[in-house]
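Intended use. Records like the one below are meant for learning the mapping from a protein sequence to its folded structure. Do not use them to infer anything beyond what is encoded.
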Amino acid sequence: MAELSRSDAPVENSRNPSGATPASAAPSVPMPETSAPAGRGNSRLEHSAERIGRGVGTAVASVSRLPRQMKSRLAIVGGRKMQSAEAAMEHWQERAKQRVAEWSEEASGASFEAVGRAEAQWEHVRRFAGARIQQLRANALRWGQRVREAPQEWQRERPLQLLAGFAVAGFVLGVVLRIRRANHG
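Structure written out for the chain above:
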């Protein structure tokens, strides 16, 4: 599945909410698609990154359209005083600065939120790993204790079987040594 490029994202127009492009507006420059395939990464982080990218892209597009919009506004003002045109220009510049500041705050808030979620997840993993390590350590200590106690238990509870086991082991060892000496010596 191909990812969407920035040019595929809908651009909001506060003057024209229907989404129709006015005849005077220049076509937007298409952004190249990314070459990375859609992965199985952190979808929340990817969503935050998309929101940040979309916000910054919209801000850049708004600022780049500002001169064209101002020329059309100046053409509409036409017969009015130049001071009112300058006031309109200052108003548009201030509005653009406010939008960029809002999007910047939203982007920084989203990044802090993503960092907070990542830190919380890391803390959860760290606690889980610590608990699991303690459990494995306790199991290993119990197993080691059983291994140390097994011969003593056999000596107390089954002395004849223990003695028979040593006798069989000695007999097998003697046979093996005798066969080896006969073949190698």
